[in-house]
Amino acid sequence: MFLICPNCGEHRPDRVVDPAGPVSICPVCGHRRSFVRRPLLVVGGASGSGKSTLCQALLGRVSGGVLLDSDLLWRPEFNTPDTGYAEFFETWLRLTVAIHQSTGPVILFGAGFGVPTNLEGRLHRRYVGRIHYLALICPDDVLAQRLRARPAWRGAGGDDFVQGQVGFNRWLRTEGPRAAVDYALVDTQVHDVGRAAAQVAQWIEAHLVG
Ligand SMILES: [Zn+2]
Fold first, then answer.
1. Are residues 95 and 122 in contact, defined by beta-carbon separation less than 8 angstroms?
2. How many CB atoms within 10 Å of residue 58?
3. 36-207 placed in CATH 3.40.50.300
């Protein structure tokens, strides 16, 4: 990984980025190294908004990008609300940058990725180009119905959980588009799975290049 300086051997994730190259510059010895900077596409949404369903529906249908579900890396030690789940988001950014050196762009599905402050300002953010945001949303009562209809073992039907997710869904719908310039919404109630998947696929294709 290019975060280890080939000149002085220091591992410094806080390299200085000159976007004109782009090159990253070692803060210890000043060594310059070119790297590949690609856009990152993120798809967020509350539980019950259709993330997993759409991610599955899109597998094999999107060429020119690497489609990943962020749950892949989730572990109990990442559950640190007091830090804003910093290590979880840093890990995904670091992995994204590593993938981007070979291929990409990465298209990442995950609840919290619809909240720009979870990504912007992170240490590894500098190595990624533009971040394009999309949130899957639906009316609050539809979301609550979907969560209450889930099997009990998923623990999604409790009032506190449902209320939390309804509040998050509302935030994504109203505040999300104000939180970043490049922020799209797809309503998963209006469309059936096939049409919603087509809409998300269209959004992905439009943003793969920059
Ligand atoms: Zn160095």
1. no
2. 20
3. yes
Q: How far away, in angstroms, is 3 Cα from ligand 1 center? A: 10
Find the 128 Cα to ligand 1 centroid distance in Å: 21
Cα 13 to middle of ligand 1, angstroms: 11
pLDDT along the chain (210 residues), means of 10: 89 94 96 96 96 92 93 96 96 97 96 97 96 97 94 84 97 96 93 90 92
Instruction: List where CATH 3.40.50.300 sits in the chain.
Output: 36-207
User: What pLDDT score does 1 carry?
Assistant: 67
**What is the reported pLDDT for 193?**
87
DSSP string, 55-85: HHHHTTT--SSEEEEGGGG--GGG--GGGTS
**3-state DSSP: the chain helix, strand, coil percent, rounded to 5?**
45, 20, 40
At position 48, the amino acid (one-letter code) is G
